[in-house]
Sequence to fold (116 residues):
Amino acid sequence: MKYTGYHLMFDLFGCNFDQLENTDYIIEMLEKLIEILDATIISKAFHKFHPQGLSVALIISESHVTIHTWPEDNYVGIDIFTCSKSFDSDKVVAYLKENLIFEEIEMKEILRGQIC
Fold:
């Protein structure tokens, strides 16, 4: 069975409010994650919500990465959709543990575009 892509969804709970409110830090952290994934950023967009929260979308040559923060709930949702055949979810988890403060992480992986 062959798939065209992988969609990983990360839910992080018990996150640090101040870290989630730091737009520059979150964007820089995602850009470094893209480097670890050996991907190429094509475009990026973000929106800072008021009174709090942030959404960032990075379009990469291999698909996209998004993050949505809910500082008031100490929650972050991260989606990585990639067609990279060398994608390593363990590297992503290790990177998140090193760069974000949180108490719990849940990961779901979906194989996309099943073709024969």
